[in-house]
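Glycosyltransferase: structure, please.
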Amino acid sequence: MPYTPFITIIIATYNSKLKLESCLQSIWNQDFANYELILIDGLSSDGTLEIILNNQDKINYWISEKDEGIYDAWNKGISKAKGDWITFIGSDDLFYPNALSDYVNFITNLEDFQKVEFISSKMDLVNSKDKLVKTFGLPWDWRISKYINTISHPGSLHKRSLFEKYGLYKTNYKICGDYEFLLRPKENLNSKFMNKVTVRMAQGGASFNGRKLFNEHYHATKNTANINSIYALYFYILQMSKYYIKNLLRFLSFNI
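Here you go.
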């Protein structure tokens, strides 16, 4: 029998009333049906629970309780996952209609798909007006990725065995926990890149907190990737400089 992947989709939510329904609809609109949906809510108080309850017949597992942030929520989801592949998507992000089938076709056409542990693609980043800001996503390459994150994480596929081998996400990270996790296998991560756009990601949220992002990135590269502290500091300063220059130019453009 040909191999048909079973995919677990995990969504972490907290007060996501305005965006969650669109995210869920993007999953139900997929042209690939061999998946399960797990939703972990952080005890929302804005009406998110009503959306979950109204759609719970299409959600395989959900829970609403206080957590320590997105990575704690993802860990709870992983503990309930049955899929041989696991993917994560933000509650304010969208899968494009062919995302899962594109991934499945990509996997089943790989000669060594049994050995592959991680597959990423590209994402469209949009602003608050739903206008495209940029398309992002490059292959994971240890020679480069140990210094700078090159991948688009939303929607990427993780073989479940990766978590069995390297553990769960570290909850002390609030932004870069997904990057830190992929650094753990070092050069041994067997990854592939699908050159297609699969996700539409909304600009904003925790991952766009520049200073905190770069602080966590610095600690991940230094402590998990074990790169030289001088190199880690160099890339930290480089990224912080680019961040502040970009914001300064944006400020000046608004005030000219």
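Notes: The CA atoms of residues 3 and 108 lie 7 Å apart.
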